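**Archive record**
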Amino acid sequence: MRTIISAAILSVLAAGAHADMARYELDPEHTAVYFTVDHIGYSKVLGIFLQVEGGFFYDAQTQELGEVSVTIDAGSVNTFNEARDGHVRNRDFLNVPQHPEITFTASGGTADSETTGTVTGDLTVLGQSNPVTLNVTLNKVAPYPFGHKREVLGLSMTTSIKRSDFGMDYGVANGLVGDELQINIETEAMKTE
């Protein structure tokens, strides 16, 4: 499931004239999709997806966003406990053998300011798609200071989803595992040119 939401990346987006948009790709070494979920009311369990990839088109001057596509390797989930990771990968949760990827796609977004906005798209988990809105903050747009020197967008995104909306209802009725997931995404997206 390489991505998820990563897509969010689309920060600051707003519709504008049809300017020349550039393609940006998520830097896998600087992209993290992580979540927290309630555990029997005692605490929240942290999980992170280690393999995320994707990209989008974006015009930094007009804030126009397009063609967001992110894929997350569902099997790359890590909750910092080997036994729990195995359970999360099985059919009670992500059912990785049958649904190895989580995807997020969107065609645009809405800017609230020069550095904040939302991106609404389709999140697909367990083969079920639902609309999800990412709250996006554009942290920085600038050429990378070393290495490739390409323009990079630094983005932070948040959202929440209900597992049950995707048919993942294990532990919901008896309160063992929370239904709501809080999701955070941190990424650096590189202009491909």
In short: The chain has one domain: 6-191. The helical segments are 82-89. The first strand starts at residue 22 and ends at 39.
